[in-house]
Design brief:
mainly alpha, 273 residues
Length: 273
């Protein structure tokens, strides 16, 4: 009795045509916006419990800084800089510092392999995580700005501009934080870089620029959050120059696009290693 392989029998279910590779069609690639929404919801649900206490820490930190600065700043342009810088500092604490730590740990623990197996574009992973982390800054930023206006006697009529400052400054800082976390070779270094970035946002954003040395003012112009601080600070004036406000927001948006593009490139680079 001879044994014949089943794949050579006529009509066998195991027989495979020679041109089967040509006949198979791959499914369409996942689109960016649906993938972005899915990653955003997943990140928001995962980080909700863990990040809310840290958001309170960021808010109390900014409020405490304004209380301390109240002893040396009475009002005027310096008060506007302190309130605007403290408000944006909440964004820097979450979007830059925590996001750098998150992507640094994700890379070290192999979590990027999970995202690499999903049919989602790399930009959706970076933008979804950045958007989720930046969303936690909204209540703390508003609370800080309102408290600062009451503390220094600033008008609150134009606080609606935070609706533009928070996402634009958040995008710029979140892209920078994600890039630092993905490019750092070790998670400890990513944490250190995130802390240094937040410290730069604290020193260069909260302190009045008129009191800084010229060289430090140039460094301040390189910080992505500076333009969000300037846009918010201008709205506290009696007659805000909205052309300059829009210009600062446009620069902040351009930096945000550039930093998110760098973060996406860093994600691709880290995912293939």
């Amino acid at each position: 009795m001879s044994v014949v392989p089943a794949e050579v029998l006529p009509g066998s279910a195991l027989s495979v045509p020679e041109d089967v590779g040509d006949a198979v069609e791959l499914g369409p690639r996942a689109r960016l916006w649906p993938s972005l929404a899915a990653v955003y919801r997943a990140q928001l649900s995962r980080a909700r419990v863990a990040r809310i206490p840290l958001l309170f820490v960021a808010t109390f930190q900014s409020v405490g800084i304004m209380v301390l600065m109240r002893g040396v700043v009475d009002g005027g342009a310096e008060a506007r800089s302190v309130v605007a810088g403290s408000s944006v500092l909440v964004v820097a604490f979450v979007a830059l510092n925590l996001l750098a730590q998150y992507f640094g740990q994700l890379r070290a623990t192999g979590g990027l392999d999970h995202y690499a197996t999903l049919p989602v574009p790399p930009a959706a992973v970076v933008l979804g995580a950045a958007g989720a982390y930046a969303s936690f800054t909204v209540p703390g930023t508003f609370v800080t700005a309102v408290f600062g206006c009451v503390l220094f006697g600033l008008p609150m009529a134009n606080l609606w501009v935070l609706a533009a400052v928070i996402p634009l400054a958040g995008a710029a800082l979140a892209g920078l934080g994600a890039a630092l976390g993905l490019l750092a070779p070790r998670p400890e270094l990513a944490t250190l870089l995130g802390q240094l970035g937040m410290s730069a946002a604290l020193l260069l954003g909260v302190l009045p620029p008129e009191r800084l040395p010229t060289a430090v003012q140039w460094c301040r112009d390189l910080l992505p959050s500076t333009y969000g601080v300037e846009a918010l600070a201008r709205t506290f004036g009696a007659r805000p120059d909205w052309a300059f406000v829009l210009g600062d927001l446009a620069v902040c948006a351009g930096v945000g696009v550039a930093s998110l593009a760098v973060a996406t490139w860093a994600y691709r680079r880290a995912a293939v290693r």
